[in-house]
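Predict the 3D structure for this chain.
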Amino acid sequence: MTTLIRPSHGRIDYYDGVRSVAIGAVLLVHWAARYTPYFDGGYIGVDVFFVLSGFLITSLLWQRRDDRVPMSQAYLRFIRARILRLYPALVGLLVIGTCIVGLMGEPVSFPEAARNAGISMGQGATWVYALDLGSTEPFGQTWSLGVEWTFYLVWPWLIYLWRRRGTSARTAGWCSAGLAVVAYVTALPTSAIWFYFAPAPRFSEILAGCAMVSTPARTDTWDSPSSRSPAWACASCPPGPITPSSSGCSGSVLWSSSAWRATASTCGTSSLYRR
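Done. Predicted structure below.
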């Protein structure tokens, strides 16, 4: 079978193409949708990135040969790798963004921006929005990274357990698909805000990507000890939050404030999608 991962640097050709389309949708919803009646559907990029994230994180975990070390040690290795991969870009975004707010004096005050930067650093933005506790502007787009980190707290342990018990990739895939259905169905009765921002409902999309790791075209690749894992993994950082109170807003808005929000979201997207 021909592997879909390029052995030269571990990247996946078709993934980069899908990711590029999703990034384009994110940028359009932040820029073009503000000034035209089009491209509101760009928020589908949120869903796409969560699915891609589940696919790549699971493939990374599944192919790692950590069976001979304690699960706690393997987990700490994984978390350390995620921190080293994601936090440099995140810290840069938060520090630079806070400084810009201090110079511009908008869209929030400097103390509020500094506080929200701390919340985003601790991956708490997703809970601020899901529980309708306010805003983490100008770093609202980091809510999705909080969803990812919540997933990281649980999913690696299940993968390690499956590997140590000799579970096949196909079986793991079916289990992932089942969990995705459960996460989606149980989230249906919740409020629109919780459904959009909370980690649990978004797990359905991440788990859908996890299930794709074991599709028939890939099962022997993932189960092969000689297969090469991707050199990176994805975590999504889709566009800034859209709520019932803001999704349809229009009227007189200062360009500088609007441009700052779009720029912050774009910078956050481009820096954090690098994984």
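The radius of gyration is 19 Å.
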